[in-house]
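User: Modeling request: complex.
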Amino acid sequence: GQSLEQPSEVTAVEGAIVQINCTYQTSGFYGLSWYQQHDGGAPTFLSYNALDGLEETGRFSSFLSRSDSYGYLLLQELQMKDSASYFCAVNTNAGKSTFGDGTTLTVKP
Amino acid sequence: DVKVTQSSRYLVKRTGEKVFLECVQDMDHENMFWYRQDPGLGLRLIYFSYDVKMKEKGDIPEGYSVSREKKERFSLILESASTNQTSMYLCASRLGMTGVQHFGDGTRLSIL
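Assistant: Request completed. Predicted assembly structure:
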């Protein structure tokens, strides 16, 4: 089966940088995705890594190390609107997608 | 623009009822997914489908079944609803293996 671990809560101030880590155990690993979910809303896609290294999309970046079964999401220049839950998700080569339990990010003024 | 539509935003049913949750996507995606989301437990995969009439069990399939008769529609069925199936249900679709998952707005289902 698959299992993912990520911190349950992170707090940071506006303008800061925050890193949300994700470690996973899976067979047939294909890629690691990140999603954002605001209260009452649907998850929305942020980033995807299939190969080792850093992917940058504006203020958000995601990193993957396949040998360490580890990835992280990096959020820069934090804004109040970034307060949300963030999920990492593992895609397998069987087409399955398994999500972590999510990290609640609180951005304070 | 990508659109995944779930038939109901809120639904209240009785214990023992057969419940149908419908999901339609307009992007011609091969893959469709059903998740349930409970506080502190993230999104848990119930079933997914990679093609018409094809289905695969996810991590928590017990008490559920699915139907995919047409590419754009993926239905989740609660055969005999129970109170522990009260939850938020999310449908998603994805193009290929590496594409983005697009989610519907969710159905908040209450079983009384």
